[in-house]
């Protein structure tokens, strides 16, 4: 093999525990490359874009400024780079989403057979598609999948390589400035998000194992506490590999229920990626056809009220405002706001999933769109259709003192304790301009149930 090995980074923006990089570094100098694909950037809100640019900035420094960043169609960009440096091979982690697989096929065809195309590893502990049941079919339900996934097992972390970076490219290309640079409040937000770097991901994991995981099982549902790891951004950009997390967990001497619960959540991520691999159409369509005759409403101003956190339901509004302001939303709040869109506003889930994906810093097509389908009743392990989250009781239960709502809904900051969840019961509940509920939850719940029952017949 002649010429440098090109390492095409995608959802794996790290140097440690990176099997494709190890493979590339074995016999050649390595040209690290990231392609900014406008088709992906156009759907990303400012926080997501910030996280990506920040991760690239850290990766460039970690590669001693060798990382080449180019904007354009990967078919063209990579074809030009391969010719420019006379690359002998291209290395990459296997991509398993429908868009990623299609793109990779096109790039490979464009590069031709003379260049060695080497896929090693994936963004998952077990590459989607590998776990099949006794009849050779994919799993449809989480619990048996998780059992088979754990039985299958995974390799230990791959360690890091001695890499000789290729410096044949004169201009490595600029990393665009983050949309969160400049204004004070944006800088504050960037600081709150924290670095999207390999070092930060590892530190977050270590801190979580030191202190957070001890109460994970008990606190993970509380929207007002920091009860979860917040590792999802790092998993999304690959600044940490799930295998690194699972390995650290296996060495952790904590309470079994907490560790078990946390590893189950990692398994959900693997499960949804597997489901998407086998059902590419479920990215934007119903996985299960049982509700195909379900009548949905057309999006109108109520969708806008939901997106902007003006529904008049405090827990829903707090979560929706937190999402847009910070690119983050607690898992419980994701379930409640999704249920509100599907079952109180009677909208088809993709209307909400698209908004989440634009803003979530961990926005991931498999976890997001199947999380939505779980709520909507069209996915795997679907939440029973008759389960309609009550946005008021959910708020009282998972934000018992109202801290979360007061933080994100300043018009309700004057209401003490759990009173914040029911402003209609307080004399001064609407004194600061908070909107009244846009729907009657009881009525819409009944409407949702009758539509679901009719659609299932
Ligand atoms: C409607 C909806 C949309 C969602 N969209 C996304 C998304 O775009 N990206 C995303 O990573 N997760 C998504 N989730 C799952 C979950 O809400 C987040 O993974 C979690 O809130 C991230 O916080 P954390 O890292 O602190 O999680 P932790 O509780 O610390 O869990 C650790 C890791 O396990 C994985 N995980 C946890 N819960 C789930 C789950 N239900 N499904 C799949 N993986 C899970 C994540 O990778 C997470 O980082 C969604 C859930 C719902 C209900």
Q: What is the structural class?
A: mainly alpha
What name does CATH use for the topology of the largest domain?
Answer: DNA Cyclobutane Dipyrimidine Photolyase, subunit A, domain 3
> What is the overall number of helices?
20
Largest sheet: 5 strands, parallel
What does this protein structure show overall?
- The chain is mainly alpha-helical and 457 residues long.
- Helix 6 (142-152) packs across helix 12.
- It is globular and about 75 Å long.
- It starts with a strand and ends with a helix.
- The protein folds into three domains: 5-122, HUPs (Rossmann fold, 3-Layer(aba) Sandwich); 124-155 and 197-278, Serine Threonine Protein Phosphatase 5, Tetratricopeptide repeat; 289-456, DNA Cyclobutane Dipyrimidine Photolyase, subunit A, domain 3 (Orthogonal Bundle).
- The protein has a five-stranded parallel beta sheet, with helices on both faces.
- The chain is built from 20 helices and five strands.
- It has helices spanning 19-25, 38-41, 46-62, 74-85, 98-111, 142-152, 184-193, 198-210, 216-219, 232-237, 242-251, 256-278, 301-308, 314-326, 331-344, 349-359, 365-376, 391-398, 403-408, 441-456; strands at 5-9, 30-36, 68-71, 89-92, 116-119.
- Bound molecules: flavin-adenine dinucleotide (FAD).
């Amino acid at each position: 093999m002649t010429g440098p090995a090109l390492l095409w980074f995608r959802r794996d923006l790290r140097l440690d525990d990176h099997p494709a990089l190890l493979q590339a570094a074995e016999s050649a100098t390595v040209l690290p490359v990231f392609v900014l694909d406008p088709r992906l950037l156009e759907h990303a809100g400012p926080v997501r874009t910030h996280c990506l640019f920040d991760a690239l900035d850290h990766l460039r420094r970690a590669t001693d400024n060798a990382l080449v960043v180019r904007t354009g169609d990967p078919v063209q960009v990579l074809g030009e780079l391969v010719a420019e440096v006379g690359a002998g091979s291209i290395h990459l982690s296997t991509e398993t989403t429908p868009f990623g697989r299609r793109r990779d096929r096109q790039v490979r065809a464009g590069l031709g057979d003379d260049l060695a195309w080497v896929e090693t590893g994936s963004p998952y502990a077990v590459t989607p598609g590998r776990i099949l049941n006794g009849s050779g079919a994919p799993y449809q339900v989480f619990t048996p999948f998780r059992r088979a996934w754990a039985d299958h097992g995974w390799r230990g972390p791959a360690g890091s390589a001695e890499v000789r970076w290729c410096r044949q490219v004169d201009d490595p290309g600029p990393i665009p400035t983050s949309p969160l640079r400049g204004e004070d409040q944006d800088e504050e937000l960037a600081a709150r998000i924290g670095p999207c770097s390999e070092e930060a991901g590892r530190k977050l994991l270590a801190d979580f194992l030191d202190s957070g995981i001890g109460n994970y099982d008990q606190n993970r549902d509380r929207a007002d506490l920091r009860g979860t790891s917040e590792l999802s951004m790092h998993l999304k950009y690959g600044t940490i590999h799930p295998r690194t997390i699972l390995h650290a967990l296996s060495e952790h001497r904590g309470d079994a229920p907490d560790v078990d619960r946390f590893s189950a959540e990692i398994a959900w991520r693997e499960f949804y990626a597997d489901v998407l691999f086998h059902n590419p159409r479920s990215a934007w369509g119903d996985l299960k056809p049982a509700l195909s005759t379900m009548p949905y409403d057309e999006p109108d101003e109520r969708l806008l009220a939901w997106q902007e956190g003006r529904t008049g339901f405090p827990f829903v509004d707090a979560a929706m405002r937190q999402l847009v302001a910070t690119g983050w939303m607690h898992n419980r709040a994701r379930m409640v706001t999704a249920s509100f869109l599907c079952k109180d506003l009677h909208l088809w889930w993709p209307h909400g999933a698209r908004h989440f994906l634009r803003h979530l810093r961990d926005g991931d097509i498999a976890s997001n769109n199947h999380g939505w389908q779980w709520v909507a009743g069209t996915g795997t392990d679907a939440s029973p259709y008759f389960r309609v989250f009550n946005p008021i009781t959910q708020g009282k239960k998972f934000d018992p003192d109202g801290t979360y709502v007061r933080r994100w809904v300043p018009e309700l900051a004057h209401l003490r304790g759990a009173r914040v969840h029911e402003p209609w019961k307080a004399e001064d509940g609407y004194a600061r301009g908070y909107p009244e509920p846009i729907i009657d939850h009881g009525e819409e719940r009944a409407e949702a149930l009758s539509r679901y029952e009719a659609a299932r017949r």
